[in-house]
Amino acid sequence: HAKNKGKQTYQVFNTEMKSDSLQRLTLENDLRRALSHNELMLYYQPQMDIETGDIVGFEALIRWLHPVRGLVPPNEFIPYAEESGLIVPIGEWVMQEACRQNKQWQDEGFLFVPVSVNLSTRQFLQHNLRDQVSEVLQRTGLAASYLELEITESSTMDVDFAIGVLLELKALGVKISIDDFGTGYSSLSYLKRFPIDKLKIDQSFVRDIMTDPNDAAIVASIISMTRHMNLRVIAEGVETEDQLVFLRNNHCNEIQGYWFSPPVSTFKVEELMLRIKQVAAHQDEESGE
Ligand code: C2E
Ligand code: MG
Ligand code: MG
Ligand code: MG
Question: What is the ipTM of this complex?
């Protein structure tokens, strides 16, 4: 009986696999075209200092402007890009474009805050990552301190290797943050050995801090631990004023989330920065400066 059942299960699985791999192949070809035809673009989500209310950074988040499907979010193609290895050229493009844009904004006087770029594990494990980063900085003329690389806990499974890579990157002058913190398996005893600058608390913990005492305790503990380790800490996925107040009361440094702003186009970033400047100029006028 069990065997029979197993066989049936296998057949169903097999049929699904076929259409799945076909889909994967189509998507892969589509993605290759996306890269060569400039269909990829970056959105930017501001990060706000809780105490001052200032924008202190922007995270670059990839979008795919597909000719038929419209704007495709990363969760629908990054996993395939990772599987196929296309994440490597795509990731290189992201880093180049994010740095180029940040430098341009600085040259135009729009903004002087760092840009964060997500690094997939496959990129992190590349032997020439340090050189890639260094070349992008040279090509774009961006100062290293304006680039922050976001890695996930899964990139740090081989602890000694990860520390080596991170030290190389830090020597260039870029900043490092751990993204989606709390969802992986990194051990706290290793965390203190990593030369990093910031922890990003995963949004799955932040979502229910007002209703779930366990989540509230987890978030409060991560913040407290991070501060004791002299790292900065940012909460992801902050959507409500209540969450903001909770995080402020617990001395979280920064927030990122829909409450402040969703990820937006470059056009919207420029609009936002101009508006902030006008408000500041107006305030200067009023205070008689
Ligand atoms: P992530 O790096 O953790 O980025 C944060 C995600 O949370 C973004 O989704 C953002 O739009 C979303 N988010 C921000 N604020 C809120 C909020 O208040 N509520 C909710 N529900 N969501 C919020 P997005 O842009 O769809 O990106 C999803 C993931 O795709 C990213 O998660 C990152 O892991 C990956 N990704 C995005 N761009 C890149 C990239 O250039 N390279 C790589 N390797 N991965 C990327
Ligand atoms: Mg991220
Ligand atoms: Mg995250
Ligand atoms: Mg994520």
Answer: 0.98
Ligand 2 center to 75 CA (angstroms):
12
Instruction: Report mean pLDDT in 10-residue bins for the chain, 289 residues.
Output: 41 50 78 93 98 97 92 92 94 98 96 97 96 98 98 93 97 97 81 93 97 96 94 98 98 98 97 88 80
Kindly report the average pLDDT of the chain as a whole number: 91
| Angstrom distance (rounded) from CA 283 to CA 272 | 17
Termini Cα distance of the chain: 85
How far apart (Å, rounded) are the C-alpha atoms in residues 211 and 45?
Answer: 26
Q: Residue 85: left if φ>0, alpha if ψ -120 to 50, beta else—which one? A: left
Are the C-beta atoms of residues 143 and 134 closer than 8 Å to each other? no
The DSSP code for 14 is H
CA of 8 to the centre of ligand 1 (A): 38
Looking at residue 11, what is its pLDDT?
Answer: 38
The 3-state DSSP class for residue 42 equals strand
Q: Whose CA is nearest to atom 41 of ligand 1?
A: 62
User: Taking CB atoms and a 6 Å cutoff, what residues make up the pocket around ligand 1?
Assistant: 45, 61-62, 73-75, 78, 87, 91, 94, 118, 120, 179-180, 203, 236-239, 256-258, 263
Q: Cβ neighbours of residue 241 under 8 Å, at least 6 residues apart? A: 259
Contact by Cβ (8 Å): 218, 182? yes
Whole-angstrom Cα distance, residue 46 to residue 114? 10
Residue nearest to atom 19 of ligand 1 (CA): 237
Instruction: Report which of 183, 175, 194 is spatially closest to residue 254, judged by C-alpha positions.
Output: 175
Amino acid at 282: H
CA 264 vs CA 32, 42, 261, 272: distances in Å: 25, 9, 8, 10
